[in-house]
Amino acid sequence: MKLGPHLHRIGNDVVAAYLVDTDEGVTVVDAGLAGHWPELLAELAAMGRTVDDVRGLVLTHGDTDHIGFAERLRREHGVPVYVHAADADRARGGDKPKASFGRWRPGALLGFLVYSLRKGGLRTTYLTEVTEVHDGDVLPLPGAPRVVGMPGHSPGSIAVHVPVADAVMVGDALTTRDVLTGRTGPAPAPFTDEPAQALDSLSRLPGLDATWLLPGHGAPWRGDLAALPDEVRRAG
């Protein structure tokens, strides 16, 4: 799906990943589930690109529904995978805290589980090699993505600000579709390690110059970033 001149999405409102397209090549942000690989190839073809045009993959964090095809892209095509240092172990399959489950509705949860299974959620291959990044880094990739630290959902959760795409990809720093309840609109993401810290991290968003806010789960959002933190807190 083309969102803008330099911006594309694969997946859907259940699980999504993003592509930034510039003259220098393509940057991928998040890797969804393993079964999103054919969608990556199809979207690249629609853009007039191939996987050889991908210069790097940036992970917003190391959870399995965001690293799906990352190792395949790295191993088979030599694409470097960038992840915050605090989530590098998680992306390699290390231990993670058991986050609280929170409220849920059977239909929404079943839909998420079925979609995840259909898209290879049980076939996740963890990373064997990553490039660690830190808050404030501007990466040497198409679109010059900047790392914005957003700890809370995980220790190394980040947002990825790409000015040329007029967008910030936030991973699970917040959600616009809760996979456990089906509720839509900006809200705290489920399965968050440190919910209070995640809410505090939202204060980083109003200072960013972007029209599109793109979550890992839910519809793309456009609005006033200055008002967004309070909106998420109210929803929580």
UniProtKB/TrEMBL annotation:
<dbReference type="Pfam" id="PF00753">
    <property type="entry name" value="Lactamase_B"/>
</dbReference>
<feature type="domain" description="Metallo-beta-lactamase">
    <location>
        <begin position="14"/>
        <end position="217"/>
    </location>
</feature>
<dbReference type="InterPro" id="IPR036866">
    <property type="entry name" value="RibonucZ/Hydroxyglut_hydro"/>
</dbReference>
<dbReference type="InterPro" id="IPR001279">
    <property type="entry name" value="Metallo-B-lactamas"/>
</dbReference>
<dbReference type="InterPro" id="IPR050855">
    <property type="entry name" value="NDM-1-like"/>
</dbReference>
<protein>
    <submittedName>
        <fullName>MBL fold metallo-hydrolase</fullName>
    </submittedName>
</protein>
